[in-house]
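Quick start: read one record
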Amino acid sequence: MQLAQKIIIADDHPLFRAALKQAVTQAIPGVETIEADSLPAVQEAVDQHSDADLVLLDIHMPGTNGFSGLVFLRGQNPSIPVVVVSGSEEPNVMKRALDYGASGFIPKSAPLETIGEAIVAVLEGEEWLPQEVADNLGEVSEDDQKFAAALAALTPQQFRVLTMLTEGLLNKQIAYELNVSEATIKAHVTAILRKLGVHSRTQAVIAAQRLGVEPPKTDLE
């Protein structure tokens, strides 16, 4: 089998992006890597490189809240597998990543050689988790599955608006940040509520927070 030649590395820490790039190039000679430091940058990279073979995604980046970015990315680009690479290394977090569509979960504490082996395994069509976690997989709740499917149906702009809602921004502030009218934001909010099956901004925020993950206490700063 011919291994992938194009991988998107998404992490907001330049040092860790460099480490991932080293692991990738050691495991796959001749690979092309594209770097991104936020969820919007990842989506732009995917739009520009629709032939990408894999996305390596940190779940703690600007523009995303826990698994919401993973779910959104998989919904918008189902043909491109995503592997979560994170410092949040609790077994439950790793299992949920696969439940929400990831093809694997690589702990940031893993040696470069292990990271490379995991990437190659996913490119060959396997799912990858640390062995001790893979031996004890659980099931995601039906409610979380339904919400993940609804979240995946949002457009990129609607997802940005929802992310800003979870940050506590008002319509006027979101309109300013996105350089659109307040009426446009109101229309987006209405569409978001309809797609998520909720009746208020507060309910939408609470629902989105279900996909949250506590940031790791020890991570690159």
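The chain has two domains: 6-134, 142-209.
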